[in-house]
Amino acid sequence: MKHLLRIAHHPAYVHPLREGHRFPMLKYELIPLQLMREGVVQANSFFVPKLAMKEVICLAHDGQYVQHLLDLSLDAKMVRRIGFPLSRSLVERELYLVDGTIQACHYAMENGVAFNTAGGTHHAGRDFGEGFCLLNDQAVGAAYLVEKGIAKRVLIIDLDVHQGNGTAHIFEDSSSVFTFSMHGDKNFPFIKERSFLDVPLVDGITDEVYLALLKQHLDTLFASIQPDFVFYQAGVDVLETDKLGKLKLTAEGCSRRDEMVFRYCHERSIPVQVSMGGGYSTHIKDIVNAHVETYRIAVNVYGF
């Protein structure tokens, strides 16, 4: 009997962002619909996360920052840094999002890979939010796995076009969680944190150069770290159609990127949790199709 690809999704991923958003957040509603329309997954693949508990969030985030977030008492400067007006529904969205990633970790342990239809909120650091990220779902997930003794050596592979500065900030002194960010050098955030390994990319990089660099560094990271769990931030803002990305990857190149990551994990029997990260192409179909392709490749590699 085949395993079932499990995917976290909650209506709250969409609704708090409907008014006043700057980017095409509609993708969080369209991705599940398109996955089912194309027959990539079935309705029973999706599970509904719960509100993450404060004590779990504080495994990765500063307790005072978390309390101010929960109380809606962040100062105006921090709210501007985050970029969204602070509201109860927005905070609850982040709590559902974090729990979705944690639950997906457990499903990945069972099935090899599991997804969150949102997440990849990698600009949130230990004591700050930034760039539309309030809490760092994969950082909390990684800290949770280590705290619970589920994993001893965790690798976070961040291939969003923007550096995972918040994730790097959280794990800057960690000997258990290793952060790898391959990102546009001249893109946001303009003041970078130091990851375990940073690979800054020049504007306009194309498929073959990008993929060769990725293979080179994955070879080194998997050999040296020997992780027992992987988080993959699979942003599709690397596409040449992206308004903010400044790179020149084709849809095929982005697909080959995803397949490379999944094969590295699958061939070594290392569970991987996937959060979707950014995507800001002019046409929503380009964003949704690229994200759906990530799921399709996982289904093919893992044989769901």
Topology:
Layout: E1 6-8, H1 27-37, E2 46-47, H2 54-57, H3 63-70, H4 76-82, H5 88-111, E3 113-116, H6 137-147, E4 154-158, H7 165-170, E5 177-184, E6 197-201, H8 207-225, E7 229-233, H9 251-267, E8 272-275, H10 284-302
Parallel strand pairs: 1-2, 1-3, 3-8, 4-5, 4-7, 5-6, 7-8
Helix pairs in contact: 1-10, 5-6, 8-9, 9-10
Family: Belongs to the histone deacetylase family.
Pfam families: Hist_deacetyl (PF00850)
Organism: Sphingobacterium wenxiniae
Brief overview:
Keywords: Hydrolase. 41% of the residues lie in helices and 12% in strands.
- Determine and state the CATH class: Alpha Beta
Helix content: 40-55%
Number of helices: 10
CATH topology: Arginase, Chain A
**What is the average per-residue confidence, as pLDDT, rounded to a whole number?**
95
What is the beta-strand fraction?
5-15%
Q: Describe the global form.
A: globular
Mind telling me the CATH superfamily name? Histone deacetylase domain
Low-pLDDT residue intervals, each spanning 5 or more residues = 18-23
- The number of domains is 1
Work out the number of β strands: 8
CA distance, first residue to last residue: 10 Å
How would you characterize the largest beta sheet? 8 strands, parallel
* Radius of gyration of CA atoms, rounded to a whole number: 17 Å
Strand order of the largest sheet: 2-1-3-8-7-4-5-6
